[in-house]
C-alpha cells in the first residue's frame, strides 16, 4: 500500500519533479547509494525533498535529516528542505499542510504534508 501511495503522490507532483532519483555518496561508513521518493526544485527557493509514509513517523524525518537532505544539498550545491508526506496523521504530527502552496509558506524545518489524493496546487 505504501508504494501505491508513493506512486500516486508522484503523479500528482508538477512535471518538473524528479521521482525516485538515485544519488551516490560517500560518508564515514564508505560509499553508498540513496533514493529519496521525490525532489522538486523551487525557483528562488530550496529544493524540496519528499519522503512518503502512510503514517507520520519520526523515521521519515530521520531519513530526511540524516541522509537525504545532506546528500541532496551536496549534489546540487544549494539549500534543500524536507517534507514528510503522509496519509495518516499522528498526535505528534506538526506543521501540517495540505497543498504545495501551504508547503511554500510553511515554517521550516520539515513540515508534514497531509496528502489524501487531492490536487497539490
Overview of this protein structure:
This protein is an alpha/beta fold and 121 residues long. The protein has one domain. Helices cover 29% and strands 32% of the residues. It has helices spanning 2-12, 58-76, 100-104, and strands at 18-19, 23-27, 30-34, 38-41, 47-55, 80-88, 96-97, 112-114. The strands form 2 sheets. The protein has a 6-stranded mixed β-sheet with strand order 1-4-5-6-8-7. Strands 2-3 form a two-stranded antiparallel sheet. Helix 2 (58-76) links the parallel strand 5 and strand 6 (80-88). The longest helix is centred in the middle third of the chain and has 19 residues, at 58-76. The radius of gyration is 14 Å and the shape is globular. It starts with a helix and ends in a 7-residue tail after the last strand.
Give a summary of the structure in a few sentences.
The protein is of the alpha/beta class and 121 residues long.
DSSP helical segment count: 3
**Relative strand content:** 25-35%
How many domains, as an integer?
Answer: 1
| Cα-based radius of gyration, to the nearest Å | 14 Å
Helix content: 25-40%
Describe the strand arrangement of the main beta sheet, using strand numbers. Answer: 1-4-5-6-8-7
Oligomer: single chain
Shape: globular
The count of DSSP E runs of length 2 or more, i.e. the number of strands, is 8
pLDDT averaged residue by residue: 93
Structural class: alpha/beta
Main sheet properties: 6 strands, mixed
Amino acid at each position: 500500500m505504501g508504494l501505491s501511495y508513493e506512486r500516486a503522490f508522484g503523479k500528482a507532483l508538477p512535471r518538473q519533479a524528479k521521482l525516485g532519483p538515485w544519488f551516490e555518496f560517500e560518508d564515514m561508513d564508505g560509499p553508498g547509494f540513496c533514493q529519496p521518493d521525490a525532489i522538486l526544485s523551487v525557483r528562488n527557493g530550496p529544493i524540496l525533498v519528499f519522503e512518503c509514509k502512510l503514517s507520520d513517523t519520526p523515521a521519515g524525518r530521520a531519513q530526511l535529516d540524516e541522509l537525504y537532505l545532506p546528500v541532496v544539498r551536496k549534489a546540487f550545491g544549494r539549500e534543500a528542505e524536507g517534507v514528510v508526506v503522509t496519509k495518516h496523521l499522528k498526535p505528534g504530527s506538526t506543521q501540517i499542510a495540505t497543498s504545495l502552496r501551504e508547503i511554500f509558506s510553511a515554517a521550516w524545518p520539515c513540515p508534514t504534508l497531509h496528502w489524501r489524493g487531492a490536487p497539490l496546487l
